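Pipeline run #58 for the internal structure catalog. This entry was flagged by the ingest filter as a single-chain record with no existing model, so it goes straight to prediction. Upstream metadata was stripped on purpose; only the residue string is passed forward. Reviewer on rotation: M.T. Logging verbosity set to normal.
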Amino acid sequence: MLTIRHDKTNHEFIVVIEGQVASLKYRVLPGREVLNYYETFVPPQMRGRSIGRALVKFALDYANETQHQIIPSCSFVKHFIDENPDYQRLIYVDVI
């Protein structure tokens, strides 16, 4: 079981294992309830353990619980949503 924490000050979700840090970073769109998930990083020695997937799921569940929409700028986040279509409803669509 991974312990993922949300660092609201630095806009990232973090997990630390054996002194190594994996994270999913985001930006908050000003004036909107929208989070831009732009980077997921897992150090090479931590890869292959589904840590990135756990970070993305945690971040998407956070957006859902807090009623935020998201922009999946990170290709890893986009790929996760493609594989888990229940999260499609969180994607922000700018209506002009």
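catalog note: The chain has a mean pLDDT of 95.
catalog note: The chain has two helices and five strands.
status: ready for reviewer M.T.
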